[in-house]
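Annex B, item 7. Sequence and structure tokens for protein A, then protein B.
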Amino acid sequence: MRPSDARRRSGGRAARAILILATTLTALVVPTADSLARQRKAPEVVAPLPPPPPPAGPVGLPDRLLQDAAAYDGYVRAASATTPPFADASAVSKALKQAGAYSAKTLVRGAVAYGAIAALEDADFVASIRQAGNTPDHRRQMVGYILANPAYVSLFADAGAAAGLAREAIGPTNLQLYATGRAVKQSAYDIQQQAWSKAQVADLQGRLSGAEAQALSDMTPDPDRLTAARRSVAGVAPIPLPNTPLPNSSGNTPLISHALQLAAIAALGEATDDAYDQLAALAVDDDTQACLSAAKRNFHQCLAVARPNYEDIFCMGQHALRDTGACLARAVGFEVPPEPLPPPAAVKKKVVRKHRAG
């Protein structure tokens, strides 16, 4: 082999080696499309967070129930302020209209609503209910439980204290109404020394018809009391209570149980104006309504036979005021004071007949 041929072969082998090396390096340095796809990571997809559930509506009651509560409050305040002795027949007539100015059904509904407003003043009670009702589904289910079972409300914090607030908002004021009735009844006897009290009442049938009509009419709330009820349920100005409220250890009466049920639904923000009919059906107490209806019936029967002014005073004190206060005080677990004992009857002296001897 000639030297030139050997150099050509050697150069060819070197060139092939260089080509192989270059191809290999190119494969290492320049990635293919497949290798790029493998190396490129897909971006991580993060699902958006669901929106938070809508919050509960504001604590409140239907305005028509607030009107009932204000009507109840206004009646008890005004009737309790009846102050004997009376100056003349016109004063008796005015007081008589005020004392009988209620319908039993509306007064009970107003008392339940007023008790609910008082119960809502317990912040822990309201907070525990709103915490449990943290979604629309929970609130809807809770309303069903509350309506079906009054005992369900007792599971929440401070339910006993809330019941105590309702009791103290209703009981003492109606004990005062009861005491006013007793004082008015007593004045019917004391005032008979004055000639005008023995005169016959003017328009006997007209005053009876007016009293009977009041029993069938809805009560109109006093504007000031309605404003106070709205401010109280909104948490602006609480209902003034006469005493430090205590839970009722013997259990809630039906009226207080219904007041707590109503307060619980109000705390959930579900006691809207649209729900008035359903909530008004809850604001009842059959026994108390029957008691008030009997008091009104006795009042009307008393007026039907009363003639002089002092007898109208007796009817007003005994039935329109005293009996009404007793019904409402007992409805929330208060006992009315016992009637004073009548004076002892005069002791009849025994007549000893002496028989003559013989």
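Protein B:
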Amino acid sequence: MTPTVPTPDLAARTLQLVDVPSESRHEAAAMELLRELVPGEPLYDDGEVLLWGDATAPVVLAGHLDTVPAQGNLPGRIADGAVHGLGASDMKGGVAVMLELSRAGLPARYLVFTREEVAVDESPLPALFATGLLADAALAVVLEPTDCILHAGCLGNLQARVTFHGESAHSARPWTGVNAIHELVRGLEPLVELEPVDVRLDGLVYREVVSAVRVEGGIAANVVPAEASVELNFRYAPGRSREEAEARLRELVPGGELTVLHNAPSAPPALGNPLAERLRALVPEVAPKQAWTPVAQFAEQGIDAINYGPGATAYAHRRDEQVPIASLERCYETLERFLRASVSAA
């Protein structure tokens, strides 16, 4: 049996990254730390995107450096076999694995970027894609938290506001007006009764769901409101385009005025990609990605992509966010074998 190659101190590296705050739109200090740690000269660095490594390598390892807002979980700590702290799972543990693979000389293109935990319209990746530096990549592995199994594809993420109009009146004489909140309640009835829709693709089942996530309306206790609105979040399956998703949402709430706030596309599973098949031989367990990730942005560029990372999905975005040290080491060792094999096969 081939002895296991010793791994670097991934826990310490993850904690180092965790302890530099990098909430979305405030990642400059963490990006500066990364520049100090990456080996060699970057292939691309515009302040929001850092690309380094072998410019001809077929595999891109990618991840975001930003986090959701802190919840009293900084600084981080190492305890009970895990790294605890903001972003440990989503996804500074994955960035730590990437960083140490690159420092060990494993051949890949390594990509870290900001502003992923916000609307896709703010993503800095389009500027990188426009350079053509990734145009010939054969596979992107996004190190989102997946509990060290493969998460194929991803759901689209459509956020929209639906506004219902009425006519204001005195609340003592409501029949003289039209209550917009009542119109909203009636308009949402089809959505309330809607069951999740299972969509099967390449043997995986993605669940399409629509949720009302915010409601606004009314100006005073004695005024029948003339306007009320609801924000809807539609997570749609691979195979449905952005335009089709918007049309479906309009079908569900025909009585309201729908305004799309942002719409991030879905991504196909890409399990037939030869490199993805090679990774699957090392990580046989595959699940559908029941969320949105940047694999969709790679897919839009014609680059096959898949999710695989050490983060614990159950702890992402939580106050008690953490990543098991064993998962960091397992992810590192798996990707090390994968990258070595990819070079041998090239």
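Comment on protein B: The chain has two domains: 10-154+267-345, 156-264.
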